[in-house]
Amino acid sequence: MRSLKLIYGTLTLGAVALLAYAVPAVAHHAFGAEFDSDAPIRLEGAIVRVEWVNPHSWIHIEVEGDGGTSRVWMVEGGTPNVLLRRGLRRECLAIGSVLIVDGYQAKDHSAARANGRDVTFTDGRKFFLGSSGAGAPADGAERRSVEAGGERC
Amino acid sequence: MSSVVRVPKYAVGKIVLGMLAVVLVPAYGQAQSSNIPRTLSGRPDMNGIWQALGNAHWDIEPHQARAALEMRPGPVVPVPSEAVVAFGAVGAVPPGVGIVEGGEIPYLPQAFAIRDANRENWVTRDPEVKCYLPGVPRATYMPFPFQIFQSESAFFITYEYASAVRNIYLHDPGPPQVDSWMGQSVGHWEGDTFVVEANGFNGQAWFDRSGNHASYQLTVVERYTMIGPDHMLYEATMEDPSTFSRPWTIRLPLYKHINADARVGVFKCVEFVTELLYGQYRKLP
């Protein structure tokens, strides 16, 4: 029984490792090709559109600026399948709900685009959004998943 | 004095409707007859290679011939844009009676403006130029054949253009898990008509080469009805509250390839557009 558990655990670890390894293959492009790891950014705003598409998902949020202006930022996330495994479902990203996104700006700093690393809901729940396997800075959050006992949204 | 006979747009619409009434109504009346092939269980047998005729793939609305898909303002009248002028008559748009019921797509004002902007920037905006997937219903009336594979438990369509495919679910799997070019399709039989509801689109597909478009909120309900052993009536109703003021319908016949060596060819155009998309990044010319 004990050895069975061990085997199961090893298999799970293997699957997680395989999943982590598989991320670059589906990521479609390297982080460094489009985003600037020296330009971290925190964005807060209401969701105006969710593109739940392969190979990358895109969450559009309207960020209030100075003097009553606002700008819609496009935040890139992992594939829908990877996000689902991390516990983040499309149903949790309703139009109008407010998110805090920690990520990295596009290399073109004038573009309202970012690579999202973490997304935090107003109630404090936090999910890893990103494509760190593609070369983005890692902090361990990318290893959390539903299979490993992580939270679902 | 111009010798060109100008037909008002509404008249074109009436002519189209009239022609449809003459051509389709008697044929449609035969749909319940025994004149169509049937499967063992008695369903219409749609297996085979099908294709649309006509010029709907240029512009689904009734239209006169025009010099090019992308025009720019000229000194007197609009002229073909720099990007397409070299194609000459090959790049000209043939006339078409259209396939839209009533003649015009009921755009909301903002969506109509996007259509015009799409037309002005056809080369850079039409997904077909970059070999992107055709979407629904555009896949049906592109100038390429497609094959229907039908059994009691499955309904599958494979299109020659870009090797696009659609697995039409016969049991609803629930909301689409991702948005995509071809969307998610669920089909069921209503008598002898196969009805498909398609949604879950990414909002980037066009209806034709003339900039007609919809958003990711598009839902398409298609109706496939055999009207003879080698003919099918195809109808599709589009609904998209962010693009159109009301649902609208297209209607056209599909023709079966009857030659013994008919087949769906290989047109994997992704590799044909690598020079267009990435040629600039190559070191050597």
Characterise the protein shown here.
The complex is a heterodimer of chains A (153) and B (285). Chain A has 153 residues and is of the alpha+beta class. Chain A is 24% helix and 35% strand. Chain A contains 3 helices and 6 strands, in the order H-H-E-E-E-H-E-E-E. The longest helix of chain A is centred in the N-terminal third of the chain and has 26 residues, at 2-27. Chain A is globular. Chain A starts with a helix and ends in a 25-residue tail after the last strand. The model of chain A is unreliable at 9-27 (pLDDT under 50). Chain B has a single domain (48-62, 97-281), classed as Beta Barrel (Lipocalin). Chain B is built from 5 helices and 11 strands, in the order H-E-E-E-H-H-H-E-E-E-E-E-E-E-E-H. Chain B is globular. Classes of the chains: A alpha+beta (153), B alpha+beta (285). The A-B interface holds A 51-54, 80 and B 177-180, 202, 216.
**Main β-sheet, spatial strand arrangement of chain B:** 1-4-5-6-7-8-9-10-11
Distance between the termini of chain B: 50 Å
- CATH class placement of chain B: Mainly Beta
Shape of chain B: globular
DSSP helix count of chain A?
Answer: 3
Oligomer: heterodimer
Weakly predicted, low-confidence segments of chain A: 9-27
Number of strands of chain B: 11
Specify Rg of chain B, calculated over alpha carbons: 20 Å
The arrangement of helices and strands of chain A along the chain is HHEEEHEEE
- Overall mean pLDDT score of chain A? 79
Structural class of chain B: alpha+beta
Q: Major sheet of chain B, described briefly? A: 9 strands, mixed, barrel
Question: Largest interface by residue count?
Answer: A-B, 5 and 6 residues
Major beta sheet, strand line-up of chain A: 1-2-3-5-4
Q: What is the succession of H and E elements of chain B?
A: HEEEHHHEEEEEEEEH
**Percent strand of chain A:** 35-45%
CATH topology description of chain B:
Lipocalin
